[in-house]
Specification:
Blueprint (H helix, E strand, L loop, with lengths): L7 E6 L3 E2 L11 E2 L2 H5 L2 H18 L3 E6 L12 H11 L11 E4 L5 H16 L5 E7 L3 H11 L7 E6 L10 H24 L6 H9 L9 H4 L4 H5 L11
Parallel strand pairs: 1-4, 1-6, 4-5, 6-7
Antiparallel strand pairs: 2-3
Helix pairs in contact: 5-6
């Protein structure tokens, strides 16, 4: 298969960094934010990895990218993407039949960059842009991708398959604690993501730029403008000025 025959991009967004020891099934195996512990988010990270590789196996025209930068100072200069790849390898999930189609995108600092940088990295590998995209991720983040990120990039939402799964807190389903957990989760998602991206689709304003800066403690910078000059407007302009897209 030549590079130009790859048409399907699978993005597995990173949400934490595996420490490189054990099998990833315990919270202490990960560098996590405090709010990620209650919902056992690390188990969903592994589920996202498995789903992504299952989808990859279904389609010989797909490339899978683990996406996420060196976001945590305490983890050292190890990217979320590197740690996901290493964990998938340790768990025996990347067979020799898949290895040539699994790679990393190691600069994304938020969900919008997971998509934009994923498109850029896919182009570096496949020498074209994808015709379809699959993303396994948290179901509560579905709206930010389908209602905000892809429309901002003018990528057809009907060509995106978002496979969502929910956190699993230690509360009885339907209990008041359970309902409060997911209500708080939805409120936080709206306040910290949806409302911000609605006003700032490319994430270049003061609030989202500061978040990105804080998630880049090692001051790493991508080279996507060299390999994807056609995408320059998405990196340097406001959404209203982007008139043409390469999709």
């Amino acid at each position: 298969m030549t590079n130009s025959q790859y048409t399907h991009l699978i993005i597995v967004p990173g949400h934490g960094i595996w420490k490189g020891s054990n099998d990833g099934y315990k919270t202490e195996d990960w560098w996590l934010e405090s709010f990620q512990v209650e919902g056992h988010d690390h188990l969903l990270f592994i589920e996202h990895i498995k789903i992504g590789l299952q989808e990859l196996r279904k389609d010989p025209c797909a490339i899978l990218l683990f996406s996420g930068g060196q976001t945590k100072k305490q983890a050292g200069p190890v990217s979320e993407a590197q740690s996901y790849y290493a964990l998938a390898d340790k768990l025996g999930l990347i067979g020799d039949d898949l290895r040539d189609r699994v790679s990393t995108e190691e600069f994304a600092r938020d969900s919008f960059e997971n998509v934009l940088f994923g498109l850029a990295r896919f182009h570096e590998l496949a020498e074209r842009y994808p015709e379809q995209i699959t993303i396994p991720g948290f179901d509560f983040k579905r709206s930010r991708f389908l209602d905000h990120h892809f429309p901002a990039l003018n990528f057809p939402v009907e060509k995106v398959n978002y496979i969502g799964s929910d956190p699993r807190p230690d509360y009885e389903k339907g209990s008041s604690e359970y309902k409060k957990y997911f209500s708080d989760l939805a409120n936080a998602e709206h306040k910290n993501a949806l409302a911000l991206f609605e006003q700032d689709p490319f994430g270049t304003g003061a609030v989202l730029s500061k978040k990105r800066k804080n998630r880049n403690p090692f001051k790493r910078y991508h080279g996507y403008l060299q390999s994807n000059e056609v995408l320059k407007p998405f990196f340097t302009e406001s959404p209203s000025k982007v008139l043409k897209t390469p999709w």
